[in-house]
Amino acid sequence: MGYVYLYYGTGGGKTANALGLALRSVGHNKKVVIIQFFKWRSDIGEYLIKDRLAPYYEIYQFGREVWLGEEDKTAEFAGEKFTVECVKNHDKELAKRALDFARKIMQGKKPHLLVLDEIALAAYWKLIDVKDVLELLDNVPEETTVVMTGRLAPKELVDRADFVNVVQLVKMPEEFKLTEGIQY
Fold it and tell me: Which of 3, 82, 133, 161 lies at a 20 to 30 A Cα distance from 149?
């Protein structure tokens, strides 16, 4: 069975850590598949690079603008304002589709690296059942390493992972602008 990594916590860089492993794998002509739960933006660097790194690099997104709350709201982050909808049943369907897709990809393509970006948060928020994630991890092909990310993670995923890194926010500026190629 392949190794399972988990990067979680309040600090930035969880996805960037996973993408670093992806770049390393592609550099050795190894197949990488990235499945992003919650993410939808096609202007982010890891999505924009997909055609240039093909056929070794694939990325799939299963998300839309959402937040965990009871009402839609306008949010602001790093000087950018955007409207987000609260989590709805549709988000559970997207998360389930992403998990089913991960299962299919893992068994069919048997990639060297499978990144499940934000899956830990999806399980923590109960958009997918943690038992289903554990079942997926129990069936990882020997040649596949799995990396899971997410701000929050259920204890079961922490316990199951072979390598666990907590990314902790120590400090950040009160006001900053998102930088193309750094935060996205």
Answer: 82
Chain-centre distance for alpha carbon 34: 8
Superfamily for domain range 4-166: P-loop containing nucleotide triphosphate hydrolases (3.40.50.300)
Task: Tell the residue number behind the tokens 């900053």, with chain if given.
Answer: 176
> Which tokens in the block code for residue 104?
């299919």
**How many helical (H) and strand (E) elements, i.e. helices and strands, does the chain have?**
7, 9
pLDDT in tens, 47-76: 999 999 999 999 999 998 765 555 555 666
Q: At what angle do helices 89-108 and 130-138 cross, to 10 degrees?
A: 10
pTM across the whole model: 0.87
Q: Is the dihedral of CA 154, 155, 161, 163 positive or negative?
A: positive
